[in-house]
């Protein structure tokens, strides 16, 4: 029996949207305001002195920890309130849309990796368990909105890509 959750690579979607028909929720691990790391500044084309929300969440399906997401969002783009971040079914993308921010384009890179000790602890994995690592840069009409580092258990996730010929 295949226990992997399939994800598509055709449109921008959130964890909540990808898992509408599952018992899925998010658990907030941390929520901080930090100076944007250089990688975030570079990827989102931000000023070097900009502050960002750093949001870390566990992703849980049917009571099982399947993913860990770390998002960076410039604080000058949106105000994220206490209620926005504490609800277990809260969708960051719904919060953005409520503030008239629409993710029009995104770039994703997907790689295989071994779990770090932090990810092993967060996801309750064995040493060097395989993960899918997704780096996503999302934009609203060329304006950098989110840099995300997404880690999914490789034994629970797969990607589906639809290709077209000539």
Question: In this structure, how is the largest beta sheet organized?
Answer: 6 strands, antiparallel
Quaternary structure state of the chains depicted? single chain
Portion of residues in beta strands equals: 35-45%
Distance between the termini: 35 Å
**What is the mean pLDDT?**
85
Gross geometry:
globular
Helix content: 10-25%
pLDDT < 50 stretches:
none
How is this fold's topology laid out?
Blueprint: E1 5-8, H1 15-18, E2 24-35, H2 38-44, E3 51-61, E4 64-74, H3 82-86, H4 92-98, E5 105-114, H5 117-123, E6 130-140, E7 143-153, E8 157-160
Short description:
This protein has about 170 residues and is an alpha+beta fold. Helix content is about 20%, strand content about 45%. It starts with a strand and ends in a 6-residue tail after the last strand.
Structure, explained:
18% of the residues lie in helices and 45% in strands. The termini are far apart. It has 166 residues and is an alpha+beta fold. The strands form two sheets. Strands 2-3-4-7-6-5 form a six-stranded antiparallel sheet. Strands 1-8 form a two-stranded parallel ribbon. The chain has helices at 15-18, 38-44, 82-86, 92-98, 117-123, and strands at 5-8, 24-35, 51-61, 64-74, 105-114, 130-140, 143-153, 157-160. The radius of gyration is 16 Å and the shape is globular. Strand 6 and strand 7 form a beta hairpin.
């Amino acid at each position: 029996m295949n226990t992997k959750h399939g994800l598509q690579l055709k449109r921008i979607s959130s964890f909540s949207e990808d898992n509408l028909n599952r018992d899925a929720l998010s658990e907030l691990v941390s929520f901080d305001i930090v100076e944007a790391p250089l990688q975030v500044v570079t990827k989102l084309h931000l000023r070097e002195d900009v502050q960002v929300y750093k949001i870390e969440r566990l992703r849980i399906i049917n009571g099982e920890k399947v993913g860990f997401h770390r998002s960076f969002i410039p604080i000058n783009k949106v105000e994220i309130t206490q209620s926005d971040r504490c609800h277990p079914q809260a969708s960051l993308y719904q919060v953005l849309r409520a503030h008239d921010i629409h993710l029009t384009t995104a770039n994703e890179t997907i790689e295989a990796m071994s779990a770090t000790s932090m990810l092993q602890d967060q996801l309750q994995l064995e040493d060097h368990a395989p993960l899918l690592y997704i780096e996503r840069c999302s934009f609203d009409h060329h304006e950098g909105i989110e840099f995300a580092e997404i880690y999914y258990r490789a034994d629970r996730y797969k990607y589906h890509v639809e290709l077209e010929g000539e």
